[in-house]
Amino acid sequence: MTNQALVATRVAELRDRIVRAGGVGVGIVAVTKTFGSDAWNDAKFAGCEAIGENYAQELIAKSHQVARLDRLPVHFIGQLQTNKIKSLFDIVDVWQSVDRASVVTELSKRQMARTSAGRCEILVQVNTTSEMDKGGCDPAEVEALVRQARLGGLDVTGLMTVGPTDMDPMKTRAAFALLKRMATDLGVEQLSMGMTGDVEIAVEEGSTLVRVGTALFGQRPHSI
Q: Residue 110: which domain range?
């Protein structure tokens, strides 16, 4: 079986997991960090909705190898540094890890300076597990961040979170349920939550986007 066919089989298996968990219309963001640009092509062939990248330099390198017309929408899901936004702005379609005012300010500045038509779609990342080493804003800060983003001309379509590091099922469910409640209160529809190990819980709690890499591509190499 070719690598492309193997990824397609794994995507089909993931979609089956999603359906069995009660998911309807849940998008798959294929997380391709540390894999080569071939993974972008494999994800598109397999029918994924988007690809997700964590590292700025890696994303830039791959964007030079896969023409825009040949690639899926690109979601940036890693820790965002404001000094990297300029170099990524014309590559990224959805910014999933917006978690502080300085990032919103920089994205708004880039959007206002845009010479071509196009929206800047973002998801606000929320730390729903209270883990100090997790990215994401505090739940109490979400409303203000969403308001700032909207005033700055950004298209806030939803929220994103990462489940607890220890993957405890009860804590995972509580974290995802919290994100769902916040999204409902804010009137946003996209809920990016769930990775390889907690897809079912995420879908049961209302996820609309799952971010999966290992289940599709196998164990990660150390570098591309």
A: 3-217
